[in-house]
Write a structure and sequence with these properties.
Layout lengths: L2 H11 L1 H15 L7 H13 L4 H16 L8 H14 L14 E6 L6 H14 L4 E6 L6 H12 L3 E2 L7 H13 L5 E6 L6 H18 L6 E7 L4 H14 L3 E5 L9 H9 L3 E5 L7 E3 L2 H8 L2
Parallel strand pairs: 1-4, 1-5, 2-3, 2-4, 5-6, 6-7
Antiparallel strand pairs: 7-8
The protein binds guanosine-5'-triphosphate and magnesium ion.
The site of magnesium ion has 5 residues, from helix 6.
Length: 306
Protein backbone atom coordinates (compact mmCIF):
# COMPACT_ATOMS: atom_id res chain seq x y z
CA UNK A 1 0.00 0.00 0.00
CA UNK A 2 1.24 3.50 -0.78
CA UNK A 3 2.67 5.32 2.21
CA UNK A 4 0.11 8.14 1.97
CA UNK A 5 -2.85 5.75 1.83
CA UNK A 6 -1.38 3.87 4.74
CA UNK A 7 -1.16 7.03 6.83
CA UNK A 8 -4.64 8.17 5.88
CA UNK A 9 -5.96 4.80 6.96
CA UNK A 10 -4.22 5.11 10.29
CA UNK A 11 -5.76 8.54 10.71
CA UNK A 12 -9.23 7.20 10.05
CA UNK A 13 -8.56 4.28 12.40
CA UNK A 14 -7.72 6.81 15.11
CA UNK A 15 -10.62 9.06 14.17
CA UNK A 16 -12.41 8.99 17.51
CA UNK A 17 -9.43 10.14 19.52
CA UNK A 18 -8.44 12.50 16.75
CA UNK A 19 -11.81 14.13 17.01
CA UNK A 20 -11.10 15.10 20.61
CA UNK A 21 -7.45 16.02 20.23
CA UNK A 22 -7.60 17.79 16.88
CA UNK A 23 -11.16 18.80 16.02
CA UNK A 24 -12.31 19.74 19.51
CA UNK A 25 -9.09 21.48 20.44
CA UNK A 26 -9.19 23.42 17.15
CA UNK A 27 -12.71 24.54 17.91
CA UNK A 28 -11.64 25.49 21.41
CA UNK A 29 -8.66 27.46 20.23
CA UNK A 30 -10.12 28.92 17.04
CA UNK A 31 -10.27 32.64 17.12
CA UNK A 32 -9.30 32.82 20.80
CA UNK A 33 -6.96 35.71 21.27
CA UNK A 34 -6.60 35.39 25.02
CA UNK A 35 -5.24 32.40 26.79
CA UNK A 36 -7.22 32.50 30.00
CA UNK A 37 -8.33 30.22 32.81
CA UNK A 38 -11.39 29.25 30.86
CA UNK A 39 -9.24 27.92 28.05
CA UNK A 40 -7.06 26.00 30.50
CA UNK A 41 -10.11 24.39 32.08
CA UNK A 42 -11.58 23.31 28.78
CA UNK A 43 -8.26 22.04 27.51
CA UNK A 44 -7.79 20.02 30.67
CA UNK A 45 -11.19 18.44 30.21
CA UNK A 46 -10.41 17.43 26.63
CA UNK A 47 -7.06 15.91 27.52
CA UNK A 48 -8.55 13.92 30.36
CA UNK A 49 -11.42 12.72 28.19
CA UNK A 50 -8.91 11.36 25.65
CA UNK A 51 -7.27 9.51 28.56
CA UNK A 52 -3.94 11.27 28.22
CA UNK A 53 -3.68 10.88 31.98
CA UNK A 54 -3.31 13.39 34.83
CA UNK A 55 0.48 13.61 34.55
CA UNK A 56 0.59 14.53 30.88
CA UNK A 57 -2.32 16.93 31.31
CA UNK A 58 -0.77 18.64 34.29
CA UNK A 59 2.67 18.94 32.68
CA UNK A 60 1.26 20.31 29.44
CA UNK A 61 -0.85 22.95 31.14
CA UNK A 62 2.06 23.84 33.37
CA UNK A 63 4.31 24.40 30.38
CA UNK A 64 1.69 26.45 28.55
CA UNK A 65 1.15 28.63 31.63
CA UNK A 66 4.87 29.16 32.08
CA UNK A 67 5.31 30.15 28.46
CA UNK A 68 2.37 32.52 28.68
CA UNK A 69 3.79 34.19 31.79
CA UNK A 70 7.17 34.54 30.07
CA UNK A 71 5.31 36.08 27.14
CA UNK A 72 6.70 33.40 24.83
CA UNK A 73 3.27 32.27 23.81
CA UNK A 74 0.57 34.64 22.75
CA UNK A 75 -1.34 32.61 20.22
CA UNK A 76 -3.49 29.71 21.37
CA UNK A 77 -2.75 27.78 18.20
CA UNK A 78 0.79 27.20 19.41
CA UNK A 79 -0.57 24.98 22.15
CA UNK A 80 -0.98 22.12 19.71
CA UNK A 81 2.66 22.34 18.69
CA UNK A 82 3.69 22.05 22.33
CA UNK A 83 1.40 19.10 22.75
CA UNK A 84 2.85 17.33 19.71
CA UNK A 85 6.33 17.81 21.03
CA UNK A 86 5.43 16.51 24.48
CA UNK A 87 3.70 13.48 23.03
CA UNK A 88 6.71 12.68 20.90
CA UNK A 89 9.03 13.05 23.87
CA UNK A 90 7.03 10.45 25.78
CA UNK A 91 6.37 8.07 22.91
CA UNK A 92 9.77 8.04 21.25
CA UNK A 93 11.42 5.99 24.03
CA UNK A 94 8.82 3.21 23.72
CA UNK A 95 9.00 3.13 19.94
CA UNK A 96 10.88 -0.14 19.43
CA UNK A 97 9.36 -2.31 16.73
CA UNK A 98 9.67 -6.04 17.14
CA UNK A 99 12.52 -7.27 14.98
CA UNK A 100 12.41 -10.95 14.09
CA UNK A 101 15.38 -12.48 12.32
CA UNK A 102 14.93 -15.33 9.89
CA UNK A 103 16.76 -18.63 10.14
CA UNK A 104 16.38 -19.19 13.84
CA UNK A 105 13.45 -19.86 16.13
CA UNK A 106 11.62 -16.95 17.70
CA UNK A 107 9.02 -17.63 20.36
CA UNK A 108 6.29 -15.13 21.16
CA UNK A 109 3.99 -15.70 24.12
CA UNK A 110 0.83 -13.61 23.97
CA UNK A 111 -0.92 -12.65 27.21
CA UNK A 112 -3.70 -10.35 28.39
CA UNK A 113 -7.18 -10.37 29.94
CA UNK A 114 -10.11 -11.95 28.14
CA UNK A 115 -11.45 -10.14 25.15
CA UNK A 116 -8.45 -7.81 24.87
CA UNK A 117 -7.77 -9.07 21.36
CA UNK A 118 -5.01 -11.67 21.82
CA UNK A 119 -6.22 -14.23 19.32
CA UNK A 120 -7.15 -11.66 16.70
CA UNK A 121 -3.78 -9.96 17.12
CA UNK A 122 -2.05 -13.31 16.68
CA UNK A 123 -4.04 -13.87 13.50
CA UNK A 124 -3.13 -10.49 12.03
CA UNK A 125 0.49 -10.74 13.13
CA UNK A 126 0.94 -14.21 11.67
CA UNK A 127 -0.60 -13.04 8.41
CA UNK A 128 1.94 -10.23 8.22
CA UNK A 129 4.83 -12.46 9.19
CA UNK A 130 3.82 -15.02 6.57
CA UNK A 131 3.69 -12.35 3.90
CA UNK A 132 7.21 -11.30 4.93
CA UNK A 133 8.34 -14.87 4.32
CA UNK A 134 8.47 -16.18 7.89
CA UNK A 135 7.35 -19.68 8.74
CA UNK A 136 4.81 -19.51 11.54
CA UNK A 137 3.40 -22.10 13.93
CA UNK A 138 0.60 -21.26 16.35
CA UNK A 139 -0.01 -22.94 19.68
CA UNK A 140 -3.47 -23.03 21.26
CA UNK A 141 -2.55 -22.76 24.93
CA UNK A 142 -5.93 -21.20 25.71
CA UNK A 143 -7.56 -24.51 26.56
CA UNK A 144 -10.06 -22.84 28.84
CA UNK A 145 -12.55 -20.92 26.75
CA UNK A 146 -14.92 -22.82 24.53
CA UNK A 147 -14.14 -22.21 20.86
CA UNK A 148 -10.75 -20.63 21.58
CA UNK A 149 -8.94 -23.44 19.79
CA UNK A 150 -11.22 -23.30 16.76
CA UNK A 151 -10.82 -19.52 16.59
CA UNK A 152 -7.06 -19.93 16.34
CA UNK A 153 -7.45 -22.72 13.79
CA UNK A 154 -9.54 -20.46 11.56
CA UNK A 155 -6.72 -17.93 11.57
CA UNK A 156 -4.14 -20.66 11.06
CA UNK A 157 -5.90 -21.88 7.93
CA UNK A 158 -6.34 -18.36 6.65
CA UNK A 159 -2.66 -17.44 6.91
CA UNK A 160 -1.09 -20.83 6.34
CA UNK A 161 0.18 -21.59 9.83
CA UNK A 162 -0.19 -25.01 11.46
CA UNK A 163 -1.82 -25.02 14.90
CA UNK A 164 -0.54 -27.15 17.77
CA UNK A 165 -3.41 -28.11 20.05
CA UNK A 166 -4.73 -30.52 22.64
CA UNK A 167 -8.22 -31.15 23.97
CA UNK A 168 -10.12 -28.45 25.84
CA UNK A 169 -9.11 -28.11 29.49
CA UNK A 170 -5.73 -29.70 28.82
CA UNK A 171 -2.77 -28.20 30.66
CA UNK A 172 -1.69 -25.07 28.71
CA UNK A 173 1.92 -25.81 29.63
CA UNK A 174 1.60 -29.21 27.96
CA UNK A 175 0.47 -27.50 24.75
CA UNK A 176 3.45 -25.16 24.98
CA UNK A 177 5.70 -28.18 25.55
CA UNK A 178 4.36 -29.87 22.40
CA UNK A 179 4.89 -26.70 20.41
CA UNK A 180 8.45 -26.36 21.67
CA UNK A 181 8.96 -29.91 20.40
CA UNK A 182 8.67 -28.51 16.87
CA UNK A 183 11.60 -26.24 17.56
CA UNK A 184 13.58 -29.13 19.02
CA UNK A 185 12.80 -31.00 15.83
CA UNK A 186 14.34 -28.20 13.78
CA UNK A 187 11.63 -25.58 13.19
CA UNK A 188 13.38 -22.28 12.46
CA UNK A 189 10.45 -19.90 12.24
CA UNK A 190 8.17 -17.96 14.57
CA UNK A 191 6.15 -19.81 17.19
CA UNK A 192 3.27 -17.80 18.61
CA UNK A 193 1.57 -19.08 21.74
CA UNK A 194 -2.00 -17.99 22.49
CA UNK A 195 -3.06 -18.06 26.14
CA UNK A 196 -6.26 -17.76 28.14
CA UNK A 197 -7.38 -14.46 29.56
CA UNK A 198 -9.95 -15.01 32.26
CA UNK A 199 -9.60 -12.43 34.99
CA UNK A 200 -11.90 -13.59 37.75
CA UNK A 201 -9.45 -16.32 38.72
CA UNK A 202 -6.47 -14.06 38.51
CA UNK A 203 -4.10 -15.98 40.75
CA UNK A 204 -4.64 -19.17 38.81
CA UNK A 205 -4.17 -17.39 35.53
CA UNK A 206 -0.89 -15.86 36.65
CA UNK A 207 0.39 -19.21 37.93
CA UNK A 208 -0.67 -20.87 34.70
CA UNK A 209 1.10 -18.25 32.59
CA UNK A 210 4.25 -18.51 34.68
CA UNK A 211 4.27 -22.25 34.15
CA UNK A 212 3.85 -21.84 30.38
CA UNK A 213 6.73 -19.39 30.37
CA UNK A 214 8.89 -21.74 32.46
CA UNK A 215 8.30 -24.67 30.13
CA UNK A 216 9.17 -22.55 27.08
CA UNK A 217 12.39 -21.40 28.72
CA UNK A 218 13.34 -24.89 29.79
CA UNK A 219 12.96 -26.23 26.26
CA UNK A 220 14.83 -23.36 24.64
CA UNK A 221 17.06 -21.17 26.80
CA UNK A 222 16.39 -17.50 26.09
CA UNK A 223 12.79 -18.17 25.05
CA UNK A 224 10.19 -16.76 25.01
CA UNK A 225 11.95 -14.02 23.08
CA UNK A 226 8.93 -11.80 23.44
CA UNK A 227 6.04 -11.73 25.89
CA UNK A 228 3.45 -9.58 24.17
CA UNK A 229 0.86 -8.05 26.42
CA UNK A 230 -2.36 -7.27 24.58
CA UNK A 231 -4.40 -4.40 26.03
CA UNK A 232 -7.81 -3.14 24.97
CA UNK A 233 -7.53 0.64 24.52
CA UNK A 234 -11.26 1.12 25.03
CA UNK A 235 -10.78 0.19 28.69
CA UNK A 236 -8.63 3.29 29.20
CA UNK A 237 -7.26 3.52 32.69
CA UNK A 238 -8.05 -0.14 33.37
CA UNK A 239 -5.60 -1.10 30.67
CA UNK A 240 -2.88 0.76 32.54
CA UNK A 241 -3.63 -1.19 35.71
CA UNK A 242 -3.63 -4.51 33.91
CA UNK A 243 -0.37 -3.64 32.25
CA UNK A 244 1.28 -3.07 35.62
CA UNK A 245 0.12 -6.46 36.92
CA UNK A 246 1.21 -8.40 33.83
CA UNK A 247 4.51 -6.59 33.71
CA UNK A 248 5.31 -7.34 37.33
CA UNK A 249 3.99 -10.88 37.47
CA UNK A 250 4.86 -12.34 34.08
CA UNK A 251 7.51 -9.97 32.79
CA UNK A 252 5.75 -8.71 29.68
CA UNK A 253 8.36 -7.35 27.25
CA UNK A 254 6.14 -5.52 24.79
CA UNK A 255 2.67 -4.10 24.39
CA UNK A 256 -0.01 -4.29 21.74
CA UNK A 257 -2.79 -1.78 22.14
CA UNK A 258 -5.93 -2.93 20.34
CA UNK A 259 -9.27 -1.38 19.35
CA UNK A 260 -7.93 2.13 19.01
CA UNK A 261 -10.48 2.49 16.22
CA UNK A 262 -13.32 2.02 18.68
CA UNK A 263 -12.41 4.61 21.27
CA UNK A 264 -11.76 8.28 21.90
CA UNK A 265 -9.41 7.21 24.68
CA UNK A 266 -6.43 6.67 22.40
CA UNK A 267 -4.39 8.96 24.61
CA UNK A 268 -4.00 5.94 26.84
CA UNK A 269 -0.94 5.07 24.73
CA UNK A 270 0.72 8.12 26.22
CA UNK A 271 -0.19 6.99 29.73
CA UNK A 272 1.07 3.50 29.21
CA UNK A 273 4.29 4.80 27.72
CA UNK A 274 4.80 7.25 30.55
CA UNK A 275 3.87 4.93 33.40
CA UNK A 276 5.26 1.59 32.22
CA UNK A 277 8.09 2.35 29.88
CA UNK A 278 7.48 -0.95 28.05
CA UNK A 279 7.99 -0.90 24.29
CA UNK A 280 4.74 -0.47 22.38
CA UNK A 281 5.18 -2.96 19.53
CA UNK A 282 1.90 -2.74 17.64
CA UNK A 283 -1.40 -0.93 17.63
CA UNK A 284 -4.70 -2.36 16.43
CA UNK A 285 -6.95 0.01 14.50
CA UNK A 286 -9.53 -2.38 13.11
CA UNK A 287 -10.36 -5.99 12.44
CA UNK A 288 -8.74 -6.36 9.02
CA UNK A 289 -5.43 -8.07 8.42
CA UNK A 290 -3.49 -4.84 7.89
CA UNK A 291 -5.14 -3.05 10.79
CA UNK A 292 -2.35 -4.20 13.05
CA UNK A 293 0.37 -1.60 12.69
CA UNK A 294 3.91 -1.54 14.00
CA UNK A 295 3.95 1.34 16.44
CA UNK A 296 5.70 4.43 15.10
CA UNK A 297 5.72 7.35 17.52
CA UNK A 298 5.89 10.05 14.84
CA UNK A 299 3.24 8.52 12.66
CA UNK A 300 1.01 8.01 15.68
CA UNK A 301 1.46 11.54 17.00
CA UNK A 302 0.83 13.16 13.63
CA UNK A 303 -2.12 10.89 12.93
CA UNK A 304 -3.70 12.13 16.15
CA UNK A 305 -2.64 15.74 16.05
CA UNK A 306 -1.86 17.90 13.09
N1 LIG B 1 -12.40 -2.85 16.28
C1 LIG B 1 -11.43 -3.66 16.67
N2 LIG B 1 -11.74 -4.86 17.18
C2 LIG B 1 -10.75 -5.67 17.57
C3 LIG B 1 -9.38 -5.28 17.48
N3 LIG B 1 -8.65 -6.31 17.98
C4 LIG B 1 -9.51 -7.26 18.36
N4 LIG B 1 -10.78 -6.89 18.13
C5 LIG B 1 -12.04 -7.63 18.43
O1 LIG B 1 -12.12 -7.87 19.82
C6 LIG B 1 -12.84 -9.08 20.09
C7 LIG B 1 -12.04 -9.97 21.04
O2 LIG B 1 -10.88 -10.39 20.38
P1 LIG B 1 -10.14 -11.77 20.69
O3 LIG B 1 -8.96 -11.79 19.81
O4 LIG B 1 -11.06 -12.92 20.64
O5 LIG B 1 -9.70 -11.52 22.20
P2 LIG B 1 -8.90 -12.48 23.18
O6 LIG B 1 -8.00 -11.65 23.98
O7 LIG B 1 -8.29 -13.58 22.42
O8 LIG B 1 -10.08 -13.03 24.10
P3 LIG B 1 -10.11 -14.38 24.99
O9 LIG B 1 -9.67 -15.49 24.11
O10 LIG B 1 -11.54 -14.50 25.43
O11 LIG B 1 -9.20 -14.17 26.14
C8 LIG B 1 -13.08 -9.70 18.72
O12 LIG B 1 -14.40 -9.44 18.33
C9 LIG B 1 -12.09 -9.00 17.81
O13 LIG B 1 -12.52 -8.95 16.48
C10 LIG B 1 -9.07 -3.99 16.92
O14 LIG B 1 -7.92 -3.54 16.82
N5 LIG B 1 -10.15 -3.22 16.54
MG1 LIG C 1 -8.37 -15.63 22.60
Amino acid sequence: MAKVGFFEKLKSGLAKTREVLTTDIDVLILGKKDIDQNLYDELEELLISADMGPQFTFDLLDEVKKRVSRKELDDASQIKKIMQQRMLDILRPVDHPLVIAKGKPFVIMVIGVNGSGKTTTIGKLSGQLRSEGHDVILAAADTFRAAAIEQLEVWGRRVGAPVIKQAMNADPAAVAFDAMGKIKAGFQGVLIIDTAGRLHTRTNLMEELKKVKRVIGRELPGAPHEILLVLDATTGQNAVMQAKIFKDEIGATGIVLTKLDGTSKGGVVVRIAGELGLPVRYIGVGEGMDDLRPFDSREFTFALLD
